[in-house]
């Protein structure tokens, strides 16, 4: 595996530092993926910018932090390096796998950090395939198909990039048809009892791609990356806009045109089960900016739902509005050593600003799922799935 796959995990300053609990949870989740810890794993640590001593404003997304946070981040990276060197659980590669911490000297931002990793000399990425993920995207379902997927990609040159399922891609064919009026049902490709479903947008979630997909296509399409750039915001928007232009074609013309245009992007989500009602998300996004080191060893009450009976119904799905774009459940993670920042876990009765997109629940424009007026009470909401990570 170490000769086939490099795993690139991006990390940056977080409120939970100097604790290594978030990355520990991520590496524990790697155990769900057969063979993943046999690969060459790189933790790519971005640099950060420091605010003035008198400033109280921090922007973790843009890497602008206080002197205290920067010091905590530096200590976090030192602790992380020690645990990697000492092969302290869960930072334990398997067979010939390796784990390496690479520190960038200054703030790059997500997209530029990826570009920097590919451009480093001597090269740190020498495998034909790469898995790219974030420090707060965990595997929450078993993945037994990694090796077979890489073998399949080796034989099928049309398949350039494969995303693991997340809540954003559950019931994806129906979601895309409802939200964008694009019928991609005839463009799916069956494989091993499951299917590859073409994506219409580049999602910022964990995925596997050919290394050349990045070096020869993605990064060449975005040559002038800025510090605040994210590939899903740049590349994803371009892809969606291009595919949206062909939706007024006739049914036969649309399928041919979609295949022609999508061939340029060649990104898919793979479900190992071909029955939509039984498909499950593989990834869970916790949002590292909204958690901090726990003050005690037990999960924070803010992490746990009120109705624990409903929480255990892990297969209970939301029965959506007829115009809904999603069938996703609500999930919440319980991670040892972490708790939600109080201001991040509270809810507001009013939206902070006007919502410009369509509601995932009712399909109407102007409000989000959270503030949908058609949801009258908590019984109309999906049940909560508690994920122990």
Automatic annotation (TrEMBL):
Which residues does the annotated region (Disordered) include? 291-327
Q: Which GO terms describe its molecular function?
A: nucleic acid binding; zinc ion binding
Spell out the Polar residues composition-biased ranges. 294-327
The answer on whether this UniProt entry bears the keyword rRNA processing reads no
Domain CCHC-type as annotated: residue spans: 359-374
Q: Tell me where on the tree of life, at the top rank, the source sits.
A: Eukaryota
Q: What is this protein called?
A: CCHC-type domain-containing protein
Q: Which organism does this record belong to?
A: Skeletonema marinoi
């Amino acid at each position: 595996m170490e000769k086939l796959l490099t795993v690139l995990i991006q990390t940056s300053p977080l409120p939970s530092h100097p604790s290594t609990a978030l990355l520990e949870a991520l590496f524990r989740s790697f155990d769900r993926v057969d063979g993943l810890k046999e690969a060459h794993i790189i933790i790519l640590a971005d640099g950060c910018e420091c605010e003035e001593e008198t400033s109280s404003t921090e922007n973790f997304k843009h890497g602008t932090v206080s002197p205290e946070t920067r010091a905590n981040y530096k200590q976090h990276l030192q602790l992380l390096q020690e645990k990697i060197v000492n092969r302290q659980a869960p930072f334990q590669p398997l067979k010939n796998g390796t784990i390496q911490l690479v520190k960038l000297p200054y703030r790059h931002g997500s997209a530029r950090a990826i570009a920097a990793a590919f451009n480093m000399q001597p090269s740190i990425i020498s495998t034909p395939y790469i898995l790219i993920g974030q420090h707060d995207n965990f595997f929450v379902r078993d993945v037994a198909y990694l090796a077979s997927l890489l073998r399949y990609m080796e034989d099928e040159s049309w398949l350039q990039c494969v995303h693991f399922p997340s809540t954003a891609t559950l019931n994806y064919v129906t979601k895309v048809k409802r939200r964008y009026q694009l019928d991609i049902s005839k463009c799916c490709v069956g494989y091993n009892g499951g299917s590859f479903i073409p994506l219409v947008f580049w999602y910022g979630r964990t995925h596997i791609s050919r290394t050349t997909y990045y070096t020869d296509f993605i990064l060449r399409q975005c040559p002038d990356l800025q510090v605040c750039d994210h590939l899903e915001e740049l590349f994803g928007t371009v892809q969606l806009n291009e595919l949206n232009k062909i939706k007024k074609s006739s049914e036969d013309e649309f399928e041919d045109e979609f295949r022609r245009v999508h061939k340029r992007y060649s990104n898919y989500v793979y479900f190992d089960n071909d029955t939509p009602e039984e498909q499950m998300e593989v990834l869970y996004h916790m949002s590292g900016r909204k958690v901090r080191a726990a003050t005690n060893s037990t999960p924070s009450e803010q992490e746990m739902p009120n109705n624990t009976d409903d929480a255990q119904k892990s297969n209970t799905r939301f029965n959506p509005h007829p115009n809904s774009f999603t069938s996703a459940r609500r999930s919440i993670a319980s991670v040892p050593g972490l708790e939600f920042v109080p201001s991040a876990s509270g809810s507001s009765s009013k939206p902070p600003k006007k919502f410009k997109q369509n509601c995932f629940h009712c399909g109407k424009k102007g409000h989000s799922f959270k503030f949908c007026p058609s949801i009258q009470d908590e019984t109309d909401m999906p049940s909560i799935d508690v994920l122990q990570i």
